[in-house]
Amino acid sequence: MMDAAAGSTGTGLKQGDSAPPRLTSLSHGGGCGCKIAPGLLSEILRTTARMPVPPELLVGIETADDAAVYQLNDEQALVATTDFFMPIVDDPYDFGRIAATNAISDVYAMGGRPIFALALVGMPVNVLPVQVIRRILEGGEAVCESAGIPIAGGHSIDSVEPIYGLVVLGLVHPARIKRNRDAKVGDRVLLGKPIGVGIYSAALKKERLDAAGYANMVANTTRLNTPGPDLATIDGVHALSDVTGFGLAGHLLEIARGSGCRIRIDWKRVPVLPGVRELAAAGFVTGASGRNWAGYGAQVRLPGGFSQTEQGLLTDPQTSGGLLVTCAPAAVERVLAVFRRHGFDTASEIGEVLAPEGQIQLEVALS
Questions:
Q1: By Cβ atoms counted within 10 A, which residue in 68, 84, 192, 365 is the most buried?
Q2: Model confidence pLDDT, tens digit, residues 272-294
């Protein structure tokens, strides 16, 4: 069973108050695993009417990039994004922190600096005590304070499941926007955070994640992707994104599709959170992982002997995952130096960008 420390719920309730329900018990999914499956999402968006696009809209929905970018003047472009989801953990304060960190990440992934946020709050107010809801919001506020931005407003509704997230606005110089469509053949691929959050969350929901695993999970998901703006100043950095609900494979595929290229990763070099492989082998894999593979598996070439456990990790939905960077080979050490300066000591070079080859846009190697 899960260690008691791993399931601590800093609700702020007074002694003698009845315990509120576990947050994860109130939601059918959690974190970025709540995303609509990539195959279904593509079908939905395929039939969506396209409106005229003004020239000032530098980044829109065309390549499923991390945020929209609108040019204000020669020196400034506005970065706009939103992200929200149901609980991935039971501690309300941690839930708020994770959701806020995840939402802010998309501004960093465009090379921008956040300037302020709006809160999006949906809560089952007849089920959750006010103190619990307040702790969720306090967690989000704490992360925004760390990012140096205010929460300037928002919107709330009474909902069946608890939902929290942010709208985040930021600024970037138009010449420093980093899109997911600008990878170049010959680039190296780097990843800023280890993967495995979805597997941790599956174990947590079944009360099988120990205190150390929970601490690793929260530390990973509440680490702001602050290297983004500094990476954007490096000339050799071409494409930038982050890893969230579609898993490592899904977000690499977005870069490959948008850039018209193929990506090969060395699976042994991909950083993985401690204990994740053991949990995955024990069956703690999210339903979203399988839906991800069903949506894009036809574009992925796996090596012989690649197990179902490893495939589940490749498609594992990440909540507040790491930055994905493609850069010229000469820029690799500068990119890693930026990551390390911001405390991302596990950041690693994991692959390379290749010329396109038929339908296969992602290859996994076991070199």
A1: 192
A2: 999 999 999 999 999 999 999 99
